[in-house]
Design a protein that fits this description.
alpha+beta
Length: 89
């Protein structure tokens, strides 16, 4: 089966996030007040062939551990859904 996955990589709590801080400091100068605790990360979208959603998630957890994240400072949240079939709206 084909699945679509989104992997959200974020810095662990307590790790300095200079990009998030820069965004947060810039927002008031752009007229956006009341926004705080900005954290920046990366989002990776992909398709994967797997026997079921649990298998897809297990494979992607290994990809995250070995390649997509630095486990010392980052964590990943994986969301897997069955990919839409061709021609479906």
């Amino acid at each position: 089966m084909k699945f679509h996955a989104v992997i959200d990589v974020q810095l662990h709590a307590g790790i300095a996030d200079p990009q998030g801080s820069t965004i947060e400091k810039a927002l008031p100068t752009l007229g956006f007040d009341g926004i705080s605790n900005v954290r920046a990360g990366k989002s990776i979208h992909l398709d994967i062939d797997a026997t079921d959603a649990a298998d897809a998630e297990a494979q992607l957890a290994e990809v995250c551990d070995k390649f997509l994240t630095n486990s010392v400072i980052e964590g990943a949240e994986i969301s897997v859904v069955e990919a839409a079939t061709a021609g479906a709206n």
